[in-house]
Design a protein that fits this description.
Layout (H helix, E strand, L loop, with lengths): L1 E5 L5 H11 L5 E5 L6 H11 L14 E5 L5 E6 L6 H6 L2 H5 L4 E5 L13 E7 L6 E5 L1
Parallel strand pairs: 2-5, 2-6, 4-5
Antiparallel strand pairs: 1-7, 3-4, 6-7
Helix pairs in contact: 1-2
Amino acid sequence: MLSLKAKGLDELDQVAARILESRPHSRVFAFYGSMGAGKTTLIKSLCKQLMVKDVVVSPTFSLINEYRTDRNEPVYHFDFYRINSLTEAFDMGYEEYFYSGAYCFIEWPEKIEQLLPAGFVYISICADNGDQTRTIDVR
């Protein structure tokens, strides 16, 4: 397990780089944390490290956003907060994304945990008491 601390937004790019360096062959990353913990913000930093040229925003209502890197490679960003059943994930064709070989960043994976591929990267984000510090555990 890799445990990292970010004491503010200015440290997130370094944290994102460390995460990607620690899992060079992984493509599916599941982000666990409470509302407001910083899941989307960390995903923005990961996308920046991957040279995503699109604007990265939470796909809360669309469930999935597709971004493109400077090499025109796809990066998929999911937010399953609003789904009510696994059927919705099946209907969107989750397998095509999760097994595509492209980066997949998943917010609220608790909703579809049994669909996650073996070997996905588990990322837990926890806000520390009262300040901007976040503890990020990667396993």
